């Protein structure tokens, strides 16, 4: 299975190729995607992305995870979360969302087993 391309990104809207759903925030992995609902784990801009937000994508067998912090990088990513990903043997890149989507799409286009979590607003 390949990682799906993120077909479009604008403030508050993301579209994943092959999926009819429009997302505000999303999780993607080889063979799938879904909405990233922060309420599931109690995530907020501070303290930011929690390991629980990433477990689902990591279980899909990704080699690399890209985290999009938002258009203005308001979403924090604690070092403990980055360490959690690395301890799973997965490389992680934390970027502003537009740059994160570009990096994710480049890697997906090269056939990498890449996953991502992306925040499309602030």
Automatic annotation (TrEMBL):
Q: Would you tell me the Gene Ontology cellular component terms?
A: cytoplasm
Q: GO:BP terms for this protein?
A: positive regulation of fat cell differentiation
- Primary residence: cytoplasm
Task: List the signal peptide residues.
Answer: none
Tell me which family the UniProt entry assigns to this protein.
Belongs to the AAMDC family.
Q: Which PANTHER family match?
A: MTH938 DOMAIN-CONTAINING PROTEIN (PTHR15811:SF5)
What name has this protein been given in UniProt? Mth938 domain-containing protein
The organism encoding this protein is Xyrichtys novacula (Pearly razorfish)
